[in-house]
Amino acid sequence: DEVLELDPNSAESGSVVNTDGKVEDDTASAPDRLGSTDASGRDEPRQSLFSPGKWNRGRTSSGDHPQLVHQTSIREQFRISRQNSKQIVDRIKTDLNQQVDNLLSTEANTKKEFQELTNVFFESGEVNEEIKAELGPTYSRTEMVEVIRSAVEARNDDRLQFLSKFFKPGSVSKLMAESRARIVWVNDWYPLKDLIYAISVDDLQKRVMVVFRGAITTTDWKTTLQGRFQEIPNPIEDDYEGKNDILRVYSGFYKYLFRKRKDTGTTKYDEIANLVHKYGTDRIGPDYNLFVTGHSLGGALTHMFCFFASMDERFTKNGPVKAIAFASPYMGGHSWGDACRHQERTKKLQLVQCRNNNDAIPRIPLNFVIGRRGPLWRHVGIGVTLPRVPRFGFKWKPMVHYWGKENSCFDSTMHGYRRNIIFHVPWLRPWTIDRTHKLEELQDRLIYGELNSKPGGCFHLLESTLDELYEKLEENDFQTLSKTKWWGLHRRKGDEHQLNGGEESN
C-alpha cells in the first residue's frame, strides 16, 4: 500500500512526508485530500473503506508527533490494477493493428498491392487485367474481412470460391480453394486411445472421402508393432480361384479397426461405414462414390477398410471403391491377396499404394519365412515406387507395377527378396529413415517427376486415372508384371499398337 504522512508543522505549505522521512511537495493535492468541503462549499460525506482513500492519524519512527497518514483503499487498488491492465492490452492491440496495416492493403494503394499480388501468383503481369475482370467486384480491406466473416458464420462456402483465382494453376492451394469437398466429420474424441479419421463430402464430384491419420500416439505405434498374422473368416461369398475359407491379415491393424465396443458391441468399421452412407445420402444422394486414403498407419487402415467396404452394396452400386494408400506396410498373406484380386476382377475395388523406393516402412514385417507359395507376406493392388530426386543429372524413372498372382514359388521368392527391408534401409545414412517416410518427401518426388518428365514417358502413367489403369490390368489378366512395356509405353515385337505407316508407338 502507498502510505503518505503529512507533517503538521508544514501543513500550511502543503508538504507531504513519506514513511522514509523525506518531505515531498504536494501543495495542490494535500489540501484537496484534507479538505472537508467540495468546490461549492458543501460538506463531503465520510469516506468508507472502498472509497478512493482516507487519512488516518499515525506516528512515524522518526518522532512522536502525530501525523496524518493516507492509505489507498482496496477499491482504489483494484482500479489502478485494472487501469494498468487496460493500458497493456491497448498497447498490444495498437502494435498488432500496426502490423496488420503494414501487411494489408489500404484504399490508397489497393491497385499497387493487387499488381504485386498477381505478379507473384501468376508469374507475369500480362494477365492482370484479365484476372481482375474475372474476379468481378473488388473489395476494400474492410469489405473483404466482412465478406469472409459473414461467409464463415453462415457456412456459405460458395461465396469464397473467387479466392481460388489468386493461386497458380495446379498448385495445392488452388486445388483446395477450387474443391467443393467439405469436412463433415472428424473423429478425435479419444485422440490418445482411438484411431483418428475424417470424412469429407464433394457434391460436385459426388464423392465421399475417408481419410485415416498416420501413427502418432503410443497406441498407434503399439498397433503398428503387432506384426503377426491373425486368421479371420473369409467374408467373400462368391467362389473364385484359390479361395480359402480363412484369410491371414496383419493382427494390429485388423484389431484397431474391428475391435468391438463394450457398450454397443459395434466396431470402428461399422461406425465409419454408417457415417459415410449417412452423409453421402444426405449431402449427395444415393449415387455417391467412396474414396479412401491415408498415410503409414492410415495407409494400412485404408487397405483394410476399402477391402471390407468393397463387399458392401451401399458403396459398390455406383462403381468400385477407390483407394490410394501412401507408404503402407504389408497387410496380409497370399489368401488375402487372392481375395483382393477377386474384388478387383469383379470391379468392386481399385487400390493403389504409393511409396518412396528407400522407405523402410512398406517393407515391414520382415518377410524372410518361405512357404508353399513363397514369402508369407504379400502386397496387393497397383504399386507406385518413386525414386529419390537425383542431384547429378541421373535419369528419374518411377516404377508402376501390379502385384498379381505369382507364377511360381521361385518367382514369388525372388520378388519378395528384391523388396525386402534389408535391401531398402539406408544403412549409410540411417538418419534419413524418418525423412524418406514423410508425405513431404512423397510430394517433392511427385512434383519433380511432373516437372522433369518427357511427354509419353514413365511419369505419364501417374497422370492416368484409376479406371484407365485397371482397364490395362483387365487386358493383361491381372498378371504380376512391373516392366513399363506392359503398360504400352515401350516398343514390343509384333505389337498390335503399331501405328499405320510403319511408325512405332511409345
From TrEMBL:
GO terms for biological process: lipid metabolic process. Residues 58-68 have a biased composition (Polar residues). InterPro entries: AB_hydrolase_fold (IPR029058), Fungal_lipase-type (IPR002921), Sec_MonoDiacylglyc_Lipase (IPR051218). This is Fungal lipase-type domain-containing protein. Residues 1-68 are annotated as: Disordered. Gene3D superfamilies: alpha/beta hydrolase. Residues 210-367 form the Fungal lipase-type domain. It holds the Pfam family Lipase_3.
